[in-house]
Design brief:
By secondary structure, this protein is α+β, with helices and mostly antiparallel strands. It is built from seven helices and ten strands. It has one domain. Helix 2 packs across helix 6. The longest helix has 18 residues. The chain starts with a helix and ends in a 15-residue tail after the last helix.
Length: 228
């Protein structure tokens, strides 16, 4: 089984997903204007029927999206300044054939992230300020802390779907491709600061393994061995 997006490389596949998001919103009647400034490269002003809103664009190859919490989960970086969240997601993380585009109300997304944050803290997970925290787009198991807040893609169906063949071919408008090509992945999608201690690396690794496996955090044990 070949994962076509992996074969493209990180930057090319990311730009393809961004182009899909832009094109999906455009076909839904929105005019998009990228917001200038470092750290805002994937924040857009979107206008429809004369009403302008701010949209944060997120891309995902595993059908999870991230925003970094601030002030112990009281605020969310980028999300708090948005009215909408525009998401471009593969249909199948293991064998992607299509890209689905979703448009979520930002206040609903904040509610999901607030609930997920609270559940993780309650279950002893480490959640760092200014470090991306992830929630599932598809329906998960709310009994698992890392899956609380899931299901946005079910409650808000996709506004557009493009095959990867379409996105690589001529089906997507040149303007969408040009806009995406001007962006850099490191400026977007909940980029996280570097760890400063080994303990932070281990704590984050345990939380990430719990998220991926659905196991409770307390069941994840990691041993570190350093050989000089």
């Amino acid at each position: 089984m070949t994962n076509r997006l992996k074969e493209m490389g990180e930057t090319a596949s990311w730009r393809l997903l961004v182009a899909a998001a832009i094109e999906g919103a455009t076909r839904s009647g929105y005019a998009l204007k990228r917001q200038p400034g470092r750290g805002l490269s994937n924040t857009w002003e979107v206008t429809k029927d004369g009403e302008a809103k701010i949209a944060s664009v997120r891309t995902t190859r595993d059908r999870y999206i991230a925003f970094p919490p601030l002030e112990g989960g009281k605020r969310w970086k980028t999300l708090d300044g948005a009215d909408l969240v525009l998401v471009s997601a593969v249909d199948d993380p293991a064998n992607p054939q299509n890209v689905d585009v979703y448009l979520f109300p930002a206040d609903v997304v904040r509610q999901r992230f607030d609930a997920s944050y609270a559940a993780r803290i309650e279950h002893g997970h480490t959640v760092r300020d200014n470090f991306g925290m992830w929630i599932m787009l598809d329906v998960g198991d709310d009994q698992i802390a890392s899956q609380v807040g899931s299901g946005l893609a079910v409650d808000y169906p996709a506004i557009a779907r493009f095959s990867i063949d379409e996105l690589e071919g001529a089906a997507v408008a040149p303007a969408s491709v040009t806009e995406a090509a001007a962006l850099e992945p490191e400026d977007t999608d909940g980029a996280s600061p570097a760890f400063t201690t080994v303990a932070e690396v281990l704590a984050s690794s345990r939380s990430e393994i719990a998220r991926l496996t659905g196991m409770p955090l307390e069941a994840i044990k990691l041993d570190l061995k350093i050989e000089a």
